[in-house]
Amino acid sequence: MSLLIEPSFWEIAKNYRVIMFDAFGVLKNSHGIIEGVPDTVARFREAGIASYVLTNDASRSPQEMEKTYTHARHGALIPATHIVSSGMLASEFLALKVRSGPVGYIGKEASAHYVRVAGLEPIPVDRVTDPDSLRAFCLLDDEGFDWFLDINRAVNLLRRVNIPIVVANTDIAYPIDADDVAVAVGSLANMMEGIVRKTFIRFGKPDTQIFSFAYARVREAIPDIKKNEVLMVGDTLTTDIIGANKFGIDSALVLSGNTQRSRADVMIQASGIIPTFVFDSVRT
Amino acid sequence: MSLLIEPSFWEIAKNYRVIMFDAFGVLKNSHGIIEGVPDTVARFREAGIASYVLTNDASRSPQEMEKTYTHARHGALIPATHIVSSGMLASEFLALKVRSGPVGYIGKEASAHYVRVAGLEPIPVDRVTDPDSLRAFCLLDDEGFDWFLDINRAVNLLRRVNIPIVVANTDIAYPIDADDVAVAVGSLANMMEGIVRKTFIRFGKPDTQIFSFAYARVREAIPDIKKNEVLMVGDTLTTDIIGANKFGIDSALVLSGNTQRSRADVMIQASGIIPTFVFDSVRT
Amino acid sequence: MSLLIEPSFWEIAKNYRVIMFDAFGVLKNSHGIIEGVPDTVARFREAGIASYVLTNDASRSPQEMEKTYTHARHGALIPATHIVSSGMLASEFLALKVRSGPVGYIGKEASAHYVRVAGLEPIPVDRVTDPDSLRAFCLLDDEGFDWFLDINRAVNLLRRVNIPIVVANTDIAYPIDADDVAVAVGSLANMMEGIVRKTFIRFGKPDTQIFSFAYARVREAIPDIKKNEVLMVGDTLTTDIIGANKFGIDSALVLSGNTQRSRADVMIQASGIIPTFVFDSVRT
Amino acid sequence: MSLLIEPSFWEIAKNYRVIMFDAFGVLKNSHGIIEGVPDTVARFREAGIASYVLTNDASRSPQEMEKTYTHARHGALIPATHIVSSGMLASEFLALKVRSGPVGYIGKEASAHYVRVAGLEPIPVDRVTDPDSLRAFCLLDDEGFDWFLDINRAVNLLRRVNIPIVVANTDIAYPIDADDVAVAVGSLANMMEGIVRKTFIRFGKPDTQIFSFAYARVREAIPDIKKNEVLMVGDTLTTDIIGANKFGIDSALVLSGNTQRSRADVMIQASGIIPTFVFDSVRT
Questions:
Q1: Which domain holds residue C182?
Q2: Where is the domain boundary, D185, D202, D219?
Q3: How many Cβ atoms sit within 10 Å of the Cβ of residue C116?
Q4: Residues C183 and C219 in one domain
Q5: What angle is formed at CA B102 by the lines to CA B101 and CA B108, rounded to 5 degrees?
Q6: Please, which residues have CB within 8 angstroms of residue A121's CB and are 6 or more apart in sequence?
Q7: Span A233-255, mean pLDDT?
Q8: CA 20 to 30 Å from A242, out of B10, B107, B135, D101?
């Protein structure tokens, strides 16, 4: 069996009412939005097809993310209200289950947005003076702290106190250019959980919760939407595609990010994770 | 810190509009419904509080399960429409993503309900004559087949064909009486996945998908329901309680099943999974 | 980089003083010894090169295994004293650490040899009447018992008593012909350990213990042997090759079993497990 | 069942010919050698009982470690030749299987001893200029490098080149005082392996290889030694005790390190790892 790569993303995607895009490797890379993508998204907008972003990313707010998709000519292609990040699920959890009080975290200052917007008080782990006062602890992002000092600090703090431990991004790595990856906070979380031996609460693809969250948003805008009218587009079989499959919507693998064209067929067969469609990129 | 066991389930539960119950270890055991449970559920019904069942069980249809909760005096305490099983999620997946054709399975004949209701044709693994014709494969239940012959059959079949592999119950074991457990189909799935080396698609708690599914049902009946008006009651920290926490609803651990009273405090601290309340049973 | 397959096994192997062979996929398959293998082994014997077998197999005694390698013309090609099985390590553990008393087991009657030879009394799990009298429990082989009844029996027995639990073969599957595999007792062990939640004690490749055991045997016969005079020949990267590498002896991957010629290069690169040599088979 | 803590370490240990001690939590802590330990070891020496150290530690050479055990009055209690570290196994692997050339590493400068002594040239990861020239890569220690920069560097380097990757200490954490632990290089290795997706080669307890290595040393000094004349003393069930059990020697758990007195009974029962004896410390 040889892999069928559909010649045109547009010809197939235009039959859906909603397109959910993964961000990294699909719409953008470490240099910003991928050339040609603004035209693609603008074309959907003109055709009355709604574009959403579903991203395992808690490094900054949807408002900040919106700027990435704002184009000189086309304007705000994907508004903040159409961007669903794993950080927002973590935030909802904090608002519903923790409610108030100080919350320790590791991550960039900008990632603390997700604690603050839940009505809680974010404290970077190196400034926690009273561990017993913390109501929760969040692993938000892989940057903005001293790995050696703060991971060791966090491990010892979490061994001692019995509070919910939230991981706002389940990814183990993310691509930073064609060749290189960066260790993501999901990997740090796995390592710390192995030492702390408590159950961390994780948010993000492939878990279907982020799809449910986004779909509820879609339903507010398009009350008569049906699952077979939504297409998820992603570059990663183990997060985007299996999550979409499990949620019951169609899935499109694009070969512009984590999954290389030369290895796509083998990876699909080896994993048993089968996308509905495969495209070279969203620009075809 | 010592564990606070609330003296009365009723006094706290009566403040919610919806109670979601786990089945095994909460409402029933291997001998059937636990004595006193019908009175508890009837009392909620009289108070206008809706009872739902959320169960990792694909051994038979909700209609069959309803009979368990039908009482000589009180009648059908929990109607089939209020019973959400992991089998129903598997069924929805099959209907949305596979749609038609033959589907191999292991499990009891009654568990094939979840394939049939999706409009597909269930074939027990020992009667599969043309593996290439299968559109999916389901692991439904731990009974109804010859473990040695059929697990080996299924493993070799799944190595060969590239189709979605569905696990309709993620539990690794289930209690059959005060002392003993039985190996659940989730354990067989983990073992088979290790050999087949493809990604199986799993349905059931602690994944929040079953909570989303049940909550959508609730919302149809009670459109203005809010998450803080729903209480999940379960006997297992690693499925019922963490799932409810992650979904953002309150959780009650009962000590009438998987979690023994003498070990509850240690297990909560060791796991870091913190229920909103702890009760001896739903009959208090 | 493309894989270098050496044209002649003999030309390279003849430079060693000892060859350690894996059994399945190298010397034999489910039909018995592979055609041409007796001539290969006989040639080593004539050249004064010693052949040993290192096998993850506790299904029968080395004396029984010797018969497989006895040839009409060449006689006993590999005597029982040159056959080292994972069962022998389990047996040594029982003799040194358990010493006497009844030992429960799952496996064929012939596999109970490894309990008996340690001076203990093997009892199949379905005949255990007094679990508290058991001094240890062994998982020996995947055949000879009723999987459904006896795995459930063993799980409940092992949850109750606190005794050493021995796994005499770590393999998760073994090839039975060119296309099919069988679930091995190592897979059953992994599944049971996940439910019982105690630490099973495992014996077999890739752990270096079986190499140490065999090397000690070799040293008795050839006191001045050095590690760089020994070649391990196997068909599986994750057991034979990584174990030999870690033990510090040279390793040869043959493509006559678990590792297909078309996938060998990818598997070596993907796993990072690098054999010293690659051959099509030991007959080249 | 309640745990039997033997009143006197000396009374039982004096019946053995060789005592193998774990280092951290048994003989020393982060402040140096534990008070009273020199007298204990000196007493064994006077009685003609040999003391060895078996330690998962590749942070410095045995010669450096010897200094820890050198006492003002008693002199060198445990000479370098009686100290066996996981670093020495890594070193042996490098000498036998890699032989020569540059080897990248993360760890302290002192830990590079184990590369150098194997006849290879250690290069810290931040000074690797030609990844393709490397013959192996070693994870030696958790200190001496910038975690953020160098772990990301190492991950990308190891994704690219296909060389043996050696982990010289399998521990996931180590105690630094009564309350706190530090993340060990074994945890970093697990995290990196999850991203790199190649098989790292690990050295250290609980693998029996370090016991074999030490036992071979003992046999050189005491040719007629038998396994039942050796006692392994450790503070950790999952490394010291299970390793000793599997190697076939007696094991003593001491409650002066990783395993707290109040939790020892529960941990033994929960893990199923059963020491031959339990003592409060080696000073009793």
A1: 87-202
A2: D202
A3: 14
A4: no
A5: 135
A6: A101, A102, A103, A115
A7: 96
A8: B107
Q: How many domains does chain C have?
A: 2
Whether the ipTM is more than 0.90: the answer is yes
Burial class (CB in 10 A: 0-12, 13-18, 19+), C262: exposed
User: Nearest 5°: phi and psi at B233?
Assistant: -115, 120
Are residues B224 and B125 part of one domain?
Answer: no
Please tell me whether residues A140 and A227 are part of one structural domain.
no
Is C93 a domain residue? yes
**CA of C146, closest CA in chain D: separation in Å?**
25
* Whole-Å CA distances, C18 to C49, C67, C125, C133, C279: 6, 21, 40, 44, 18
pLDDT at residue D2 is higher than 80: no
d(CA B242, CA B251): 8
Contacts of A198 in chain B (CB under 8 A): 270-273
C86 pLDDT higher than 70: yes
pLDDT in tens, A8-24: 999 999 999 999 999 99
Chain B hits for C172, Cβ within 8 Å: 194-195
* Whether residues D110 and D39 fall in one domain: no
Cβ-defined contact of C272 to D92 (cutoff 8 Å):
no
> D14 with D103, same domain?
no
8-state DSSP, C138: E
Domain boundary among C177, C202, C227: C202
pLDDT tens for each residue of D48-98: 999 999 999 999 999 999 998 998 888 889 999 999 999 999 999 999 999
pLDDT for the residue D73: 87
Give the mean model confidence (pLDDT) for residues B6-26: 96
Q: What is the pLDDT of residue A2?
A: 66
Provide the shortest C-alpha distance from residue B220 to chain C (in Å): 38
Give percent of chain A above pLDDT 90.
85
State in Å, rounded, how far the first CA of chain D is from the last one.
23
Residues of chain B whose beta carbon is less than 8 angstroms from a beta carbon of chain A are 1, 92-93, 96-97, 162-165, 196-201, 203, 207-209, 212, 227-228, 238, 242, 245-249, 268-274
Query: Does B185 fall in a domain?
Result: yes
pLDDT tens figures, C88-140: 999 999 999 998 999 999 999 999 999 999 999 999 999 999 999 999 999 99
**Are A156 and D180 within 8 A, CB to CB?**
yes
d(CA D197, CA D206): 23
Q: Which residues of B touch A163 (CB under 8 A)?
A: 272, 274
| Per-residue confidence (pLDDT) for residue C81, from 0 to 100 | 96
Residue contact C194–B179, C-beta within 8 A = no
Distance from CA of A33 to the nearest CA of B (A): 31
* Residue A224 and residue A164 in one domain: no
Are B230 and B216 in contact, with CB atoms under 8 Å apart? no
Q: Is A77 inside any structural domain?
A: no
In a domain, B3, yes or no: no
Residue C173 near residue C181, CB atoms below 8 Å: yes
A100-123 pLDDT, tens digit per residue, is 999 999 999 999 999 999 999 999
pLDDT in the model for residue D259: 87
**Residues of D contacting chain C (CB within 8 angstroms):** 1, 92-93, 96-97, 162-165, 196-201, 203, 207-209, 212, 227-228, 238, 242, 245-249, 268-274
The mean predicted confidence, pLDDT, of chain D is 94
Q: Which amino acid is at C69?
A: Y
Output the domain CATH number for residue A143: 3.40.50.1000
pLDDT at A143: 97
Is the domain of B91 the same as that of B185?
Answer: yes
Neighbours of chain C (3+ CB pairs under 8 A): B, D
pLDDT above 60: residue D168 = yes
Structure tokens at C123: 């009892």
Angstroms from A154 CA to nearest CA on chain B: 15
pTM of the full predicted structure? 0.94
Same domain flag for B24 and B127: no
